[in-house]
Amino acid sequence: MVLALCLSFPARGEVSSLPGTVAEVTTDVELRKNPDRSAESHGLLPKGTFVRVLGEVQDRFVNIEVELENGVMEGWVPENSVSAGDLSDSPRGLRPRPETLTAQEPDEAAPPPVKGKKRRSRRVPEDEEILMRRKTSFFYGAAAAVNYAFINASDGTQFTGMGFGVGGHIGFFADKDIPMRLEIGYLDIGGIDDTARQVHFGFIEAGVSVAYQSNGLEIFAKALWAFTANISNLPTNLNNTSLPMSAYGGPWLGAGAGYRWELSQLLSLTARGGYQFALMSNTFSYHVIGAQFLFDIRG
Fold first, then answer.
1. Domain housing 70
2. Residue 126 forms part of a structural domain
3. Residue 179 in domain
4. For the segment 207-219, what is each residue's pLDDT rounded down to a tens digit?
5. Cβ pair 156, 192 in contact under 8 A
6. pTM of the predicted model, to two decimals?
7. Is 127 inside any structural domain?
8. What are phi and psi of 151, to 5 degrees?
9. Dist. CA 11–CA 138, nearest whole Å
């Protein structure tokens, strides 16, 4: 039995390429469907999870499987995120059983994969869903944007010009591919017409956005309420003094598409292009196109 244990578990820090080697996850890491950092994730393997190395290595990713309560899930993790270790303190993941410790009694529950055969999908048990972040998970972050605005006045004049936006958000996953964000930020828009007259508006925006993501790509929609923070440079004929400043604000809608990059296990960057417009039109109507960059940190 001692000899069998020595053969099954190499020294800590070594990850054998032989199928069946047991290793420990040394940092929180995404279990990817393919050997690529941008590949779709099955979920997050927490530090300390024990896995079985299946032997195949591609692009510095190693093929592994993790044993859940209802079966085995296979995927890819970076080579430097796993190392061999002792299983005695493993609360989850792969656990040693007597039949896996000797060559004479192979593990029938989770045999090494056979090339050319697709492994059968397994349902992830309820408590493992939390471990693998299959359920709602929390994140937060910041955003910055540049925009180009089309501001139409009631007299038919159009003002166009550059602006910017900054803000922050908190969010959760309604599903593993559907992030929702509660957003708050500042939107600055302004422009100049063909006679060199200028207008300028600043809004505090609060609202919600929802996206659908697949392999890094995403589409999104948002609904916001804009509270007027400042107005300047209004031409005299367009300065309706009977309207309170709050009348220039109101509901906005927006939509667009983007791409997400995983910068690390906890940090991601999403670049978006989109269009948003104001539903209200008191003296002015607003249409904005622009690019937005969101930094997300998993909580």
1. 2-115
2. no
3. yes
4. 999 999 998 999 9
5. no
6. 0.59
7. no
8. -110, 115
9. 37
